[in-house]
Amino acid sequence: MNPAVNTIDHKFSVAPMLDWTDRHCRYFYRVMSKKAVLYTEMVTTGAIIYGKGDYLQFDESEHPVVLQLGGSDAADMAKAAVKAQTYGYDEININVGCPSDRVQNGRFGACLMAEPDTVSDCLKAMQQACDLPVTVKSRIGIDEFDSYEFLTQFVNTVKNSGCEHFIVHARKAWLKGLSPKQNREVPPLDYQRVYQLKQDFPELTFSINGGIQTLEQTQQHLTKIDGVMVGRGVYQNPFIMQQVDEKVYAQPASKMTRFDVIEAMCEYMERETALGATSWHIARHMLGLFNGQPKARLWRRFLSENARQYPQGSELLKRAADIMR
């Protein structure tokens, strides 16, 4: 198959975050923004091919939605890509950025930056097996391999296998001695290095990730780069999603209030808890909805302390909303 043409506008995307960006979280974000690109948590090839659960399920409203895939065996990556296509994902992203020990032991994530040929083999196998665009998310370096030359060699090798879009976390990863949390905070950010990649590879699409908290910062980055990926900034203050379509994509302003969001999520909660989810599976992603507003702490506390009392239906959200009113 020929490399797929990417038609998604990647100006703004929400980062894949393990244990956070599950399908309930993504639905919540989609209620507030129609244009933002949403990423799944990283799913391993083993979970997709051999796992007993359904790790690929998503709601049709989530489009455009990208599957982030973890793995390094080209044949398994191709099998997972075929399955992702049958589910209807818009795109697949290869994880070459996660620094956790568990991921390294599986020989994928950030350690693959030292193996660009392996990444290329996976990319080629996936493109031959499916019609979806395949992208790569990486760091700017790993351990002592943190020169700009090392980074450009990685990009050049993977680009020659057909990758047209790179998402670059503007920190290197220390694979020895730092936890994943420390790897998000300790290595210094180097945005200029990502900007330089765009200058040196103008034919490619680059998105920048790492330490970006606000839409104002997003707009500044977009003067120098094609796209911005925000992670914890959105998770901790999710209502900024309500302004993404207007401020980033120049679409008509959303008139949606936080209470409109709650109303939409009440309907979703009724539906999903009837199918076996608990209210907490959904409400936990909404703890930051009133971030920066009066009584925000009360909102968080009510949801956290009463989730067990109202495990089904939307009563938990409705009662919390009454308190905020």
Q: How would you characterize this protein structure?
A:
By secondary structure, this protein is of the alpha/beta class. It folds into 2 domains: 12-247, Aldolase class I (TIM Barrel, Alpha-Beta Barrel), CATH 3.20.20.70; 258-324, Four Helix Bundle (Hemerythrin (Met), subunit A) (Up-down Bundle). It contains 15 helices and 8 strands. Strands 1-2-3-4-5-6-7-8 form an 8-stranded parallel β-barrel, surrounded by 4 helices. α14 (296-306) runs antiparallel to α15 (315-324). The protein is globular, with a radius of gyration of 20 Å.
Could you provide a short overview of the structure?
The protein is built from 15 helices and eight strands. The protein is of the alpha/beta class and 325 residues long.
Q: In percent, how helical is the residue content? A: 40-55%
- Distance between the terminal alpha carbons, to the nearest Å? 55 Å
Task: Tell me the structural class.
Answer: alpha/beta
Order of helices and strands: EHEHEHEHHEHEHHEHEHHHHHH
Strand percentage: 5-15%
> What is the number of helices?
15
Just name the CATH architecture of the largest domain.
Answer: Alpha-Beta Barrel
The averaged pLDDT comes out at 94
Q: What does the main sheet amount to?
A: 8 strands, parallel, barrel
As a whole number of angstroms, the C-alpha radius of gyration is 20 Å
- Domain count: the total is 2
User: What is the molecular shape?
Assistant: globular
What's the level 1 CATH class of the largest domain? Answer: Alpha Beta
**Number of DSSP E strands:** 8
Strand order of the largest sheet: 1-2-3-4-5-6-7-8
- CATH fold category name of the largest domain: TIM Barrel
The CATH H-level homologous superfamily of the largest domain = Aldolase class I
Protein name: tRNA-dihydrouridine(20/20a) synthase
Cofactor: FMN
Domain DUS-like FMN-binding: 14-316
Active site: 98
